[in-house]
UniProtKB/TrEMBL annotation:
Organism lineage: Bacteria, Pseudomonadati, Pseudomonadota, Betaproteobacteria, Burkholderiales
Pfam families in UniProt: TPR_21
Keyword line: Signal
Record protein name field: Ancillary SecYEG translocon subunit/Cell division coordinator CpoB TPR domain-containing protein
InterPro entries: SecYEG/CpoB_TPR, TPR-like_helical_dom_sf
Signal peptide interval: 1-32
Length: 344
């Protein structure tokens, strides 16, 4: 976790790159039960950001002091931006306005944190690192104002686990956040323990804590469970270490979250590793149609699978879709471009 001032420039660059990737994993789409207003909550929970933006604007036009509508407008702009600078800037401006007008309302600080998280995914690694203090301050204030907030507590714990010590990272602080709700919010505490185990690379412990989590219908909890499961399964998938364990984890996701792409995507990875290309393609094509597909390199893997099968036309189409997706990670896009160029 520690990073030293005397580290060579290359080492710093590698660690900064790792930090940016980790932040991308932890800050990408933190849905949450954040609004007291049922309409606003239903729209954000479903990811219907266009409708959320319209409703928030309508509310503000008749009641400019509506804190939840102000925060909802910022969230809608920020989470639908997909790296679009103008939309992210508009979301940041709205979040600042929300905080200025309602400094003691937790959801305004949460909106600021979400916007900062999205900005960090769209800028260079060193600029993202400079934004960590502001992000941490927003999550801390949000949680101070609403200690029961699932998203505030889990995201702050993950931030402490992700950033280096010299930038305010602290495993002990993450553990304090877990201990504070061990009795009052046991499932939240267990989920934080999952990420603490992941940071320590204690995969058996992580697997054990994940297995003990109770199924939840809340999208916020499902998002975090899905992220953790994919992270753990990747460890078992790596270098064919334990494909059976990886498969069981992916099948569990498919069972518990059938409307999400993660389960099908993961099973396709296992099948591809086992040389079952046609079955891998079937699962990837299914994953393309499900929620969260844009946050996974589905079309990149699909392009690779079609290429392995010898279907260059389908591979080309998949690579082109992936490259055009604004949510695709730059490193994956570069790899897809190289594969596409080789097709001629």
């Amino acid at each position: 976790m520690n990073i030293y001032f005397q580290a060579p420039r290359q080492a710093l660059s590698i660690r900064a790159s790792s930090l940016t990737l980790a932040l991308a994993a932890s800050l990408g789409s933190a849905q949450a039960a954040v609004f007291k207003d049922a309409q606003l909550e239903a729209l954000q929970d479903a990811g219907k950001y266009s409708e959320l933006e319209q409703l928030a604007q309508a509310r503000l036009s008749t009641h400019a002091a509506d804190a939840e509508a102000s925060a909802a407008l910022s969230l809608a702009m920020s989470l639908s931006a997909a790296g679009e600078a103008k939309r992210l800037d508009a979301g940041a401006k709205q979040a600042r306005l929300c905080v200025e007008q309602h400094p003691n309302v937790a959801v305004c600080h949460l909106a600021m944190a979400q916007n900062l998280g999205q900005q960090m995914l769209s800028v260079g690694m060193f600029k993202a690192m400079r934004m960590v203090d502001s992000l941490k301050a927003s999550w801390i204030r949000s949680l101070e104002l609403d200690p029961s907030s699932f998203t505030g507590r889990v995201q702050l714990a993950k931030l402490y686990l992700t950033v280096p010590g010299m930038m305010g990272g602290s495993v002990s602080k993450a553990k304090e956040l877990e201990a504070a709700v061990r009795r009052s919010q046991p499932e939240t505490a267990r989920l934080i323990r999952v990420f603490i185990a992941a940071e320590a690379r204690k995969w058996d412990e992580m697997e054990r804590e994940l297995a003990l989590l109770k199924p939840s219908k809340e999208s916020a909890v499902q998002d975090e469970v899905r992220e953790a499961t994919l992270q753990l399964a990747q460890q078992f998938l790596k270098d064919g270490k334990d494909l059976d364990k990886a498969r069981r984890l992916y099948e569990g996701l498919l069972r518990d979250q059938p409307s999400k792409a993660g389960g099908h995507y993961g099973l396709a990875r296992v099948l591809a590793a086992q040389g079952q290309t046609d079955e891998a393609i079937r699962h990837l094509e299914r994953a393309r149609t499900l929620g969260g597909a844009d946050e996974l390199p589905v079309d990149h893997r699909l392009g690779d699978a079609y290429l392995a099968k010898g279907d260059k036309a389908q591979a080309k189409a998949a690579y082109e879709r992936f490259i055009a997706n604004k949510r695709s990670k730059p490193a994956n896009v570069e790899a897809a471009r190289k594969s596409l160029a080789q097709l001629g």
